[in-house]
């Protein structure tokens, strides 16, 4: 067989989790919680199963869940998506992103990807026959930011889609109002679409706001917003999320979705719809993770790691130049093998080879896990 993705191997998350497990390292690499979800959520899903809600739901998702999603977006961001024609439940954001790209990108279209970028974007663009055009984020001791002048310069008559991600994996940066306005300036008067990956929408810290692209009246009509219940409700293994997009985009999205997965796990949809009646779990999420972020950052202050800001997500990036001159991949392996703490090299999120001397830790862990990792890192 001739590979359609000749440059793709096994994802860095799988590689580092396997190494962490082999070496008995504390796994702060792959992003997932090491604590369980709320038992009330499991009860709600179990109840749906026990009451016979076990056959195919409607193709676009259970109406109760789509209504709950639309209601939440209306309350938080003031944008009214129509639950029937503008919200689709997906098998996690990975499927939502692939399907958004497959329906929007034609062979030969250019897609602007801001690096570092989550690893599923580029293979999806290539499967669609699209051409990724890379723009690198600027990094300084103030953290990462998007150089919008370079994004603007990357736009051509072939640009079909711009990919954005806020809060951003792996950097922990967030788009601010000025960023969103800069993006709106770039696409105004064009037919460029936007894919906004907002899976960490409920993890924004220090009282800052999540600037969902649906808040911007010029961007909402051209944007696929992707999110994931896996992140919000500590259930990354359930693989469920949603895409919110205007009716014309959603109609095309569903043409692909119905032959991609057709539809998504019924009882999980009913369970989440019931659970969403209480906004507390996502309203309280920033405080929950901010405390973990601060515990982890405080511990790292005793080391030679230099902390970059973490305004959102459950990731903390650090510069290790004072500790080692190894490449990011080698340093991550060394840290896992010799120190017993797994991290992810940020270089894995670049297509253009790039070494910044920065690795990513995940702090979605029990306090005791974070303390154990900090004990091991204390010698550095
Ligand atoms: N986008 C980003 C930025 C992510 O970090 C992740 C999860 N690691 C995803 C998409 C995929 O989400 P899901 O697990 O719901 O497919
Ligand atoms: N999104 C998670 C991360 O960035 C990993 C998900 C995966 O393993 N594909 O660590």
Report on the structure:
The protein has a 7-stranded mixed β-sheet, with helices on both faces. 47% of the residues are buried. The radius of gyration is 20 Å and the shape is globular. β7, α8 (177-187) and β8 form a beta-alpha-beta unit. α1 runs parallel beside α14, α2 packs across α11 (266-275) and α3 packs parallel to α11 (266-275). It folds into 2 domains: 12-30 and 284-377, Alpha-Beta Complex (Aspartate Aminotransferase, domain 1); 39-278, 3-Layer(aba) Sandwich (Aspartate Aminotransferase, domain 2). The termini are far apart. With 380 residues, the protein is α/β, with parallel strands linked by helices. The protein has helices spanning 12-23, 39-50, 63-77, 83-86, 92-104, 121-127, 148-154, 177-187, 229-232, 247-260, 266-275, 280-283, 285-300, 328-339, 367-377, and strands at residues 26-27, 87-90, 110-115, 131-136, 138-140, 143-145, 159-165, 193-197, 223-228, 241-244, 306-307, 315-319, 341-342, 344-345, 358-362. Helix content is 40%, strand content 16%. The longest helix is centred in the last third of the chain and has 16 residues, at 285-300. Bound molecules: 4'-deoxy-4'-aminopyridoxal-5'-phosphate and glutamine (GLN). The site of 4'-deoxy-4'-aminopyridoxal-5'-phosphate (PMP) has 14 residues, from α5. This is Aminotransferase. Its cofactor is pyridoxal 5'-phosphate.
């Amino acid at each position: 067989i001739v590979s359609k993705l000749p440059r793709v191997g096994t994802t860095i998350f799988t590689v580092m989790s396997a190494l962490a497990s082999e070496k008995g390292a504390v796994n702060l690499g792959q992003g997932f919680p090491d604590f369980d979800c709320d038992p009330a959520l499991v009860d709600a899903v179990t109840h749906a199963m026990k009451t016979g809600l076990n056959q195919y739901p409607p193709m676009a998702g259970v109406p109760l869940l789509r209504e709950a999603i639309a209601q939440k977006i209306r309350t938080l961001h003031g944008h009214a998506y129509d639950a029937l024609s503008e919200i689709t439940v997906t098998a996690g954001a990975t499927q939502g992103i692939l399907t958004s790209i497959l329906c929007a990108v034609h062979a030969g279209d250019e897609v602007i990807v801001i690096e570092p970028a989550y690893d599923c974007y580029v293979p999806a663009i290539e499967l669609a026959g699209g051409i990724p055009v890379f723009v690198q984020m600027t990094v300084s001791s103030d953290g990462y930011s998007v150089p919008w002048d370079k994004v603007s310069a990357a736009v051509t008559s072939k640009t079909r889609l711009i990919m954005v991600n806020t809060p951003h994996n792996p950097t922990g940066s967030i788009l601010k109002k000025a960023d969103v306005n800069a993006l709106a300036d770039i696409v105004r008067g064009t037919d460029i679409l936007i894919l906004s990956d907002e899976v960490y929408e409920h993890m924004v810290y220090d009282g800052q706001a999540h600037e969902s692209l649906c808040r911007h009246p010029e961007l909402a009509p051209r944007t696929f917003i992707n999110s994931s219940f896996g992140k919000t409700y500590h259930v990354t293994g359930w693989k469920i999320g949603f895409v919110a997009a205007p009716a014309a985009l959603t109609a095309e999205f569903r043409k692909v979705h119905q032959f991609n997965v057709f539809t998504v796990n019924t009882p999980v949809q009913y369970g989440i719809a019931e659970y969403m009646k209480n906004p507390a779990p996502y309203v309280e999420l920033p405080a929950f993770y901010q405390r973990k972020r601060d515990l982890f950052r405080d511990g790292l202050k005793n080391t030679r790691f230099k902390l970059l800001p973490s305004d959102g997500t459950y990731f903390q990036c650090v510069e290790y130049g004072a500790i080692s001159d190894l490449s990011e991949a080698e340093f991550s392996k060394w840290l896992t093998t010799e120190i017993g703490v797994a991290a992810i090299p940020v270089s894995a999120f670049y297509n253009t080879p790039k070494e910044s001397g920065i690795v990513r830790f995940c702090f979605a862990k029990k306090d005791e896990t974070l303390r154990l990792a900090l004990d091991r890192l204390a010698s550095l």
